[in-house]
């Protein structure tokens, strides 16, 4: 091979390298390559990490021994080296050893595991309670002691998901209303679901619990340091299972109390206007926002739905038919489908607004206006 | 004899056949087809997960792919493949002229294409196919279109086929062994299949019950799993996993049998600890019925339940370890050669052990709270089902194909297939351990940015793994069509009745039973 062809070969490899580097995206250099759990911020998460490290160490050592013995055998006991086969095929002592020794290792692993499990189970002495409810596809948080409640859903713009905009740092792990919790307090969570099974998981807190309709599961946490901790729904719950993250904001107790009173005021403000008569344009404007948060995931941002799965809103029998039917299905849902009852999720104004929007937007034009008072009358 | 020798040709040969070899061939090609279908779905999954954002498919379709991929691979590829091996090999290995119930045998196969058609058709129904995961958890499975009903019926038919096949296998093994072949002289592949058949008989009807209740909840107003009607969604999970855990041993016990045939052959040394192998298999089968709720640690069981299922699950490590140590002791001080079947067996044992120890990690309840429903679990069960079952199936195909076709496969191509599969498999699934530990949930069509790099490794691995199987298809067809003539014994160290008949095995074998010492 001549020098020049060697050079051109080198060039080819260099170019290949560049292509590969470009393919593996902002990759390699910037990559974090996380190999273990996220940094724990509660005592329990710390215990779990220790337990995980211990059992990983044990099984890694076992696998290395197994590999070495197999590899030695493969290397030395091969016909091509002229190794003659032995004829043994039984050895009771060996059989007893490799039954009893693994059993003892298991006992050694079971002891710390049992201790951690018992610790996680003890919800006694909790200082506040938050009820967590899974919905398709968002979370609802009810602070039972502070009388605050709100929904929390994905805030990553659709354009980022559909590759029309650059993805932000917390892509898919950001929400409109994070769950705010005080540090240093034992918090009890009551976990349940409204429609299908979800699971509330925040790795850094070491908390994962299924949210099951008809069940109220209990679990607790005590966060050591202020910060923002992100998690996701862990149980397949339908189309947007990958799009219902959890964001926990841990703050000092003072900040938490301030935040709680602000939230209360907000809730009162949101109720305001339930008594008055709204204009159509105000309702449509407000309804468009509500639609984006609560309806667009299934029925589509433009009302096209998903053929065969989620009905279109544009030209639909419900949205262009009698107002009473429309109110009924939005408020009470439809059994056996993903259409849930919204009367518990939205207030009178939002319900009136979204129905008005659906009847006068998304390609529909019935001219109907639904007032909050009409919704209230049906409660 | 001459009356038996005439048989129909062409399509009717295959439709009406009651010959165990023909039916075995049908099973094997059927399962290979499903392996490619399920594999294609895996390619779609890995292509979508190549980078963050939605590129190729909608989330709803993505969920259908993960669901149908699993159902196709479990019920369409791996289970029928082992039944195909059983059909070909059991009569040859125990010296029987055929299966005990040949017409039933025909029917148990011909149920399969209909079930598979229903399952694949479900994807084309309004609303698409099942999208709730292969575990079919309600209430999610109560939502959704008629694709779900197609799936339920498909599962019923697949189950029926398995039950009939199991009855046949049990009847054959218990009644048709050659004179002198006592139970404790049976080849280990026969033993593992006998135990597997009992597992199938005990667990498949439970699955049938669960999906029937699902069907009536969907259409006939019952509320078995609907909390609002007094039912219980968690009860489905208990019933499902009472089937589901034995099911994973149904997938892997016959693979243990295959390893136990191949390793002694190429180590030229008898299997170490035959008796303990039999008892370990039986112990695993027994334990498989009392560990089911380790799939459900996060549903909120009482402490006593969490502890019981943790301890019983950890116990499985003991008999599984015994098996792995026995295989290692069989290799120890042997006179080994490394033809393709041996490569698959060794890799299968080692990589299955990797899946075994991650299984042990998952059995630890508190640690499982972090692993559960993440990619760690996805990595774990592919190390058991792919490395355990599928590598065993590949090894078995190379091991016995000279007996089936009379031709040797091309060793270079076989080894190329092996190494491509190794690289592809480990590149796909090893990084998934880290993805899971770092917090990536399973069954999501899109992911946060920090998971990008390992997902790309995984996707590259999957494409290599997928392409390698097309090479396998080529090797299989090439070997069926021709190749170096195989001797009767095929392998220097081969032991057992199947190696005493000519290669290819004649249409009828052991019309007069052989005498076993």
What keywords describe this structure?
heterodimer, A: 379 residues, alpha+beta, Helix Hairpins, Immunoglobulin-like, Cytochrome Bc1 Complex, Chain D, domain 2, 3 domains, five-stranded mixed β-sheet, 12 helices, 10 strands, 16% strand, disordered N terminus, B: 517 residues, mainly alpha, Cytochrome C Oxidase, Chain A, 16 helices
Describe, in plain words, how this protein is organized in 3D.
The complex is a heterodimer of chains A (379) and B (517). By secondary structure, chain A is an alpha+beta fold. Chain A has helices at residues 3-23, 27-30, 43-76, 92-121, 158-161, 253-271, 280-294, 296-299, 317-320, 323-332, 348-360, 372-378; strands at 128-135, 138-143, 148-152, 179-182, 187-193, 198-202, 207-211, 217-221, 227-233, 245-251. In chain A, 44% of the residues lie in helices and 16% in strands. The radius of gyration of chain A is 29 Å and the shape is elongated. Chain A folds into three domains: 43-121, Helix Hairpins (Orthogonal Bundle); 128-271, Cupredoxins -  blue copper proteins (Immunoglobulin-like, Sandwich); 280-378, Orthogonal Bundle (Cytochrome Bc1 Complex, Chain D, domain 2). Chain B is mainly alpha-helical and 517 residues long. Chain B has a single domain (21-500), classed as Cytochrome C Oxidase, Chain A. Helix content of chain B is 68%, strand content 0%. Chain B has 16 helices and no strands. The interface between A and B is large, with 105 and 102 residues.
């Amino acid at each position: 091979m001549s020098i020049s062809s060697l050079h051109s070969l080198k060039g080819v490899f260099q170019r290949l390298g560049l292509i590969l580097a470009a393919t593996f995206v902002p990759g390699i250099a910037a990559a974090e390559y996380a190999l273990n759990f996220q940094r724990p911020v509660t005592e329990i998460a710390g215990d779990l990490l220790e337990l995980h490290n211990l059992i990983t160490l044990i099984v890694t050592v076992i696998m290395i021994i197994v590999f070495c013995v197999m590899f030695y055998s493969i290397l030395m006991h091969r016909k091509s080296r002229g190794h003659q086969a032995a004829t043994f095929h039984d050895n009771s002592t060996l059989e007893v050893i490799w039954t009893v020794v693994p059993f003892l290792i298991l006992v050694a692993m079971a002891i710390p595991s049992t201790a951690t499990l018992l610790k996680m189970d003890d919800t006694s002495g909790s200082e506040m309670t938050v009820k967590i409810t899974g919905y398709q596809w968002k979370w609802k948080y009810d602070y039972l002691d502070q009388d605050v409640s709100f929904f929390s859903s994905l805030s990553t713009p659709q354009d980022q998901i559909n590759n029309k905009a650059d993805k932000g740092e917390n892509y898919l792990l950001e929400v409109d209303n994070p769950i705010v919790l005080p540090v240093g307090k034992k918090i009890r969570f009551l976990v349940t679901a409204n429609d299908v099974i979800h699971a509330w998981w925040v790795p850094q807190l070491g908390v994962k619990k299924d949210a099951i309709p008809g069940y109220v599961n209990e679990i607790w946490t005590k966060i050591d340091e202020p910060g923002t901790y992100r998690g996701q729904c862990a149980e397949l719950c339908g189309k947007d299972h990958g799009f219902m993250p959890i964001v926990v904001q841990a703050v000092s107790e003072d900040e938490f109390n301030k935040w709680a009173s602000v939230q209360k005021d907000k809730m009162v403000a949101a109720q305001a206007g339930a008594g008055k008569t709204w204009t159509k344009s105000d309702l449509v404007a407000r309804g468009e926002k509500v639609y984006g948060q609560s309806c667009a995931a299934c029925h589509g941002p433009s009302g096209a739905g998903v053929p065969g799965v989620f009905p279109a809103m544009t030209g639909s029998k419900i949205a262009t038919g009698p107002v009473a039917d429309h109110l009924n299905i939005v408020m009470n849902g439809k059994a056996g489908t993903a259409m849930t009852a919204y009367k518990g999720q939205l207030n009178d104004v939002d319900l009136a607004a979204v129905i008005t929007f659906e009847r006068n937007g998304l390609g529909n034009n019935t001219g109907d206006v639904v007032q909050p008072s009409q919704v209230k009358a049906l409660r | 004899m001459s009356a038996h020798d005439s048989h129909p040709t062409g399509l009717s040969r295959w439709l009406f056949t009651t010959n165990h070899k023909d039916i075995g061939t049908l099973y094997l090609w059927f399962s290979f087809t499903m392996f490619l279908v399920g594999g294609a779905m895996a390619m779609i999954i890995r292509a979508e997960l190549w980078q963050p954002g939605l590129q190729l498919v909608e989330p709803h379709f993505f969920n259908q792919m993960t669901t149908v991929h699993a159902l196709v691979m479990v019920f369409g590829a791996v289970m029928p493949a082992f039944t195909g091996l059983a059909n070909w090999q059991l009569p040859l290995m125990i010296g029987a002229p055929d299966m005990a119930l040949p017409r039933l045998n025909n029917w148990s196969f011909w149920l399969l294409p209909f079930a598979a058609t229903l399952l694949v058709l479900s994807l084309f129904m309004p609303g698409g196919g099942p999208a709730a995961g292969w575990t079919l958890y309600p209430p999610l499975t109560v939502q959704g279109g008629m694709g779900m009903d197609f799936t339920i019926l498909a599962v019923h038919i697949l189950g029926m086929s398995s039950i009939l096949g199991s009855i046949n296998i049990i009847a054959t093994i218990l009644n048709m062994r050659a004179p002198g072949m006592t139970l404790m002289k049976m080849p280990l592949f026969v033993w593992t299949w006998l135990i597997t058949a009992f597992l199938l008989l005990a667990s498949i009807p439970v699955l049938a019950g669960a999906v029937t209740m699902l069907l009536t909840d969907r259409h006939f107003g019952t509320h078995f799993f609907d909390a609002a009607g007094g039912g219980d969604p968690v009860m489905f999970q208990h019933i499902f996993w009472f089937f589901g855990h034995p099911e994973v041993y149904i997938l892997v016990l016959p693979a243990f049998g295959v390893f136990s045939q191949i390793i002694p052959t190429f180590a030229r040394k008898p299997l170490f600890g035959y008796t303990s192998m039999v008892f370990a298999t039986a112990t695993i089968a027994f334990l498989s019925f009392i560990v089911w709720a380790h799939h459900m640690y996060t549903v909120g069981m009482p402490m006593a339940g969490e502890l019981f299922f943790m301890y019983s699950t950890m116990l499985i490590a003991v008999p599984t370890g015994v098996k792995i140590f026995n295989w290692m002791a069989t290799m120890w001080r042997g006179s080994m050669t490394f033809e393709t079947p041996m490569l698959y067996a060794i890799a299968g044992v080692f990589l299955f052990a990797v899946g075994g120890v991650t299984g042990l990690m998952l059995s630890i309840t508190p640690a499982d709270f972090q692993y559960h429903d993440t990619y760690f679990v996805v990595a774990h069960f592919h190390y058991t089902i792919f490395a355990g079952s599928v590598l065993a199936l590949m090894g078995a195909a190379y091991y016995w194909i000279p007996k089936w076709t009379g031709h040797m496969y091309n060793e270079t191509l076989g080894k190329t297939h092996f190494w491509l599969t190794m690289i592809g498999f480990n590149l796909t699934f090893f990084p998934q351990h880290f993805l899971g530990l770092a917090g990536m949930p399973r069954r999501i069509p899109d992911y946060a940015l920090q998971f990008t790099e390992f997902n790309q490794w995984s996707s590259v691995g999957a494409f290599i793994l997928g392409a390698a199987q097309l090479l396998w298809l080529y090797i299989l067809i090439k070997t069926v069509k021709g190749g170096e003539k195989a001797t009767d014994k095929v392998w220097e160290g081969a032991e057992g009745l199947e190696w005493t008949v000519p290669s290819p095995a004649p249409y009828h074998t052991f019309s007069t039973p052989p005498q076993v010492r």
